Every structure is written in C-alpha cells, then in structure tokens.
Fold each of these.
Amino acid sequence: MPRVLITGANRGIGAALMIAARDAGHSPIGTTRHGGDGFTALTLDRPDTIAAQLAQIGAVDIVINNAGVIGPDRQSPLDMDFIGFAQTLAVNTLAPLAVVQALLPRLRDSATPLVLTLSSQMAWMGYRKPDRIAYRASKAALNKVMQGLASTLEPDRIPVVVIDPGWVRTDMGGPEADQDPATVAAGIIALINRVTLADTGKFLHFTGKERPF
Ligand SMILES: NC(=O)c1ccc[n+]([C@@H]2O[C@H](COP(=O)([O-])OP(=O)(O)OC[C@H]3O[C@@H](n4cnc5c(N)ncnc54)[C@H](OP(=O)(O)O)[C@@H]3O)[C@@H](O)[C@H]2O)c1
C-alpha cells in the first residue's frame, strides 16, 4: 500500500484527499499545523524548519503538497501588504519544495515515488488579472520551482507534476465555486496510477488533462 503524505489534511481539498486516498486503498499520512487526531504535525510558515519537523516520519512513497493560503487582504499591485506577500510565498512556494527536499531519501527508496503539488489556474501567465497578486505570483513561482524540480529528479525516476484543481467549494474557494472537493480529490488520487515519468514537469487539470502554464 503506497504511503501518501497529504499536507493541510484537516479541511477543504486536503480532507477530501484523505478520504479519496483511503477509498483507493492507499495509506494516507495527513499533516496539520498541530497534529493530533491521527494527523502528523507540520507547520509550513518557516521552510527552514520543515526538514526537522519531518525527521521522524517513516516511509513515504507519494507527496501531495496541498496546503496553501490565499494571502493577505491587501494584495493589489499598488496596495500590497508585503509581510503578507512574503508569508504567502513561504507557505505556497517555498514550503512545498522544502517538503520534497526533506522527504527525498524516502522517495528515492520508494518503488512508486511521485510528487503532486496543488497549484491554481490563477497562476496562468496568459492573462493580466491584477487582483490577488500575492496568491497568483506564489502559484506561478510554485509552477516554476516544480518544473525545475521535475527536471532535477528525472534521473531518479521521480515524477513531479503540478495540478490545477479548478474552482472548488472550500473555505478558500467559497460557496459559489463549481467543483465539489470530493470529485476533485478523487480525480487527483486517480492521477497516482496514471502519472508516469513521461508526464514529469507538466501542469495537469485534476481530470488528468494537460493545461498551459
Ligand atoms: N479552493 C479552490 O478553489 C482552489 C483553487 C485553486 C487552487 N487551490 C489550492 O488547493 C489547495 C487546497 O485549497 P483549499 O481550497 O482546500 O484551501 P483551504 O480550505 O483554505 O485549506 C487550506 C489548508 O492548508 C492548511 N494550511 C494553510 N497554511 C498553513 C500553514 N502555514 N501550515 C500548515 N498548514 C497550512 C490549512 O490548515 P489550517 O486549517 O490550520 O489553516 C488547511 O488545511 C491550496 O494549495 C490552494 O491554493 C484551491
């Protein structure tokens, strides 16, 4: 049974991923800020602390970097909360890389290694929308980080892809969103058996369809 580490597992897409992973016969290890209730404690605000926080974790085959933040209230180009912007980058962009670095020995030991990271359509470079720039920039940078990581880990035969979950009904997505978390989570978990090294570096919709960066 592959052991799947899922960050931000207490609510939203992460909680739905825990259920979908169990339903698919995987063995999920959920992380939350404070642990408890069968969760592993992992806070993502300080990337330099992540390796130490994960030092005692056992075998991990698959990493799903799910946790993320929408960012500060003020994040338009001319009215920017810079501290909040930096915190958004720490959680959304730096932490996923630090998690993979920390778990790399486990992934290298695995027969079925895989890294999936939740990005967003809001990262798309094909339009010039000016709202939520801290969030958009953090996810665009995340895509570039994961693309580079994909190339770096290709010789280790560890596929790395970023995922667009669509607009999902969670605390972040709000009640008007068109996707329900269970459907999105089931799609993402199904990717575990579909993604191969031929897909590494791609940006995939949760349905598995490749999409532009
Ligand atoms: N919902 C959407 O429409 C949508 C669209 C595109 C992409 N996404 C992405 O999908 C992922 C999940 O989103 P969601 O809608 O499920 O969000 P959510 O409902 O707001 O849940 C976010 C999760 O991330 C955790 N988290 C946030 N900051 C953390 C930190 N510093 N340390 C540890 N955990 C932290 C939260 O833990 P706490 O409960 O402790 O805060 C929570 O478990 C995110 O990466 C998001 O950017 C979502």
Amino acid sequence: MCYHSSSAPAFDVNTATPARVYDFYLGGKDNFAADREAGEKVFDVFPDAPRLARANRSFSLRAVQQCVNTGVDQVVDLGTGIPTSPNVAEVARAANPDVRVIGVDNDPVVLSHQRAEASLGGYAIVQGDVRRPWAILADPVFNHVIDLSRPVLVLCTAVLHFIPDAEGPERIIRAFTDAMAARSFLALSAVTSSDTDPAVIAGIQDAYRNATAPAIFRPAEHITSWFHGLELLRPGVADVSQWPGRIGFPTTVRILGGVARKPSAYQP
Ligand SMILES: C[S@@+](CC[C@H](N)C(=O)[O-])C[C@H]1O[C@@H](n2cnc3c(N)ncnc32)[C@H](O)[C@@H]1O
C-alpha cells in the first residue's frame, strides 16, 4: 500500500540538515559537503558518533518489534529519517505482516527517498513538521492509514533534540499522547546533557550552529518528564545501547530512550 501526500519544499545543499548529517554518521550516501563538514566537526569532539547513531537506530527497531509483538498494529514514525536497512516498516512487518506504518518528516531528501521506498509498498509517508502536531493529526493521508481510536505506537527517536524549548517539545508529545487510544505506546529518544562534558556539548552545538536545526542537550529528568501520565516499560529511561536491560557500551555523549504505555486512566 502506498500513499503520497503534498510535494516536498526545495532543498539547500549548502546548509547541513539533521537527517543528512545522521546519514553521514551511519555511512550513507545521501549527504552533501555541508553535512559532512558538520559531521566531521562532531567527530572532532565525539569520534564515537557513528556508534551512538547505530545504537539509537537499533533502539528504535527494538521498540517497534516489542510494541508490535504486544499486538499494536499501527506505527507512526515521527522524524523517520533517510531509509536504512532494516527500516521501521520491515521490522514491524516481520512481527505482523498486516501492520500499518506511516513515516513523517520535514526534510525534502528524506521525503524523496522515503516516497521511493514507500512506492514499493508496505507503508506510507507524509510531509509534516512535528512542531505542528495538529496539522499531522489532521492530515488526510495520516488518517487514511492510522485509526487513532485503536492502539498505535508513536515513535519519535532522535528528533526532539532538534526542537528548542521555545518550540515546545512537551506540547508536541502531549498532542500525540492525548490523541492516541488507551494501550497505545510512545517510544522516544533524545540526547542528554546529564553526565556529559560541557566542552563536548559545546563542540557539537557549534557543529550544528549553521544547520537547519540546532542540537539541544537536556538533563535526563527533562527527557523523563516527556513520559508524564504514561507507564514506562522496564527499565525506564536508559541509554539507548542498554534498553531494554541489555549490556550496552559507555559513550561520552549519551542518547536516552524509553518506551511507555498509555493507561486507560490517562491523566494528562
Ligand atoms: C537524527 S534523524 C533520526 C531518524 C530516526 N528517527 C532514527 O531515530 O533513526 C532526525 C530526523 O528528524 C527529522 N526532523 C527534525 N526536525 C523535524 C521536524 N521539526 N519535523 C519533522 N521531522 C523533523 C529530520 O529530518 C530527521 O529525519
């Protein structure tokens, strides 16, 4: 099944984007000189960035597998990124061939690649900006694929650290958790400032200074607060390489991830 939404905006090869820099970390080919320059600057202070990016991807896929295995058959992948293999749809379908998956992103390169993949069938992609959650929730394609009256997994990994406080990451999460049915899941990950050398944080923030979005590091308690009103699955919010209870590896920069379920007695 393949659905297409509105056209992508023009893109600028001279300005690094989070999606293309991430693609560079993961060894992909869908990045330009400006993205590689930003990525190299990150490597100067954090050479382990590719390993952390792979650990984050792996966390996303484990969260999808776990939630689909519990019976959830709809997945919303916010900030889906440039396709990797395996992707969210492939992992979800391996757990349930009838699962419905929709990816959302605002990066034209992501949209172009994901539309090509989606045309092969199995999932849908819509252009959307998570800073405008109500527009995503009202999108006709979104509503054709996803039935919010039934449980859904909302996946939002490595996205909210590109959203400054002034643009309301809490408001974004809240819009989706309020809209989703009881027994739905939220899985998210974000880079943390906790236990991290401020000089390394400053170096990474500098690398993203001229990108389309800044890199925002938040304390672990702040990231945990995004799960307010939901029931965190064990082990709670943890380093992505360690979730769920795996023996991970330490890195000087940390991405924290968690998965939580919306209870029937949800109180926002
Ligand atoms: C670091 S990549 C993460 C990709 C994937 N979620 C993962 O965890 O592997 C961040 C993604 O979020 C997307 N993104 C960033 N800001 C966004 C926004 N305001 N609206 C929609 N997508 C956004 C980027 O385009 C990019 O594809």
